[in-house]
């Protein structure tokens, strides 16, 4: 009985360690210079753009209205998204184009103190 308790404890500890082991982080979240706030703006802009889309494309009255949630988030996203654009652009270019907004980030920094990422072409 004394031997079985340490074995049980070892088995439980090894299972807890396996469960707690971190998984790989998506590339966008690994961008060291990107702030949490920038991920918040851009990620939520993606979600909001989806609420204004349908089978025939974007409802621009919903998406592009001055008081829409997408419009409220996208300016801040574009101001900070240089470090994230490779990951987020595929989700944001179409709704930005639908609203006749710039389809590349307009800011010059990823976050305070970071430098502008090189522009890429597809």
TrEMBL record:
The keyword Signal applies. Residues 1-18 form the signal peptide. Keywords: Signal. This is Extracellular membrane protein CFEM domain-containing protein. The lineage of its organism: Eukaryota, Fungi, Dikarya, Ascomycota, Saccharomycotina.
């Amino acid at each position: 009985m004394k031997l079985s308790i340490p074995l049980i404890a070892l088995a439980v500890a090894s299972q807890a360690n396996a469960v707690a082991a971190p998984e790989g982080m998506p590339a966008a979240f690994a961008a060291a210079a990107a702030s949490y706030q920038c991920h918040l703006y851009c990620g939520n802009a993606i979600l909001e753009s989806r609420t204004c889309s349908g089978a025939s494309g974007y409802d621009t009255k919903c998406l592009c209205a001055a008081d829409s949630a997408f419009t409220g988030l996208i300016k801040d996203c574009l101001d900070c998204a240089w470090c994230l654009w490779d990951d987020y652009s595929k989700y944001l270019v179409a709704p930005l184009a639908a609203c006749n907004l710039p389809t590349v980030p307009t800011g010059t920094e990823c976050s305070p103190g970071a430098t502008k990422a090189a522009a890429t072409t597809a």
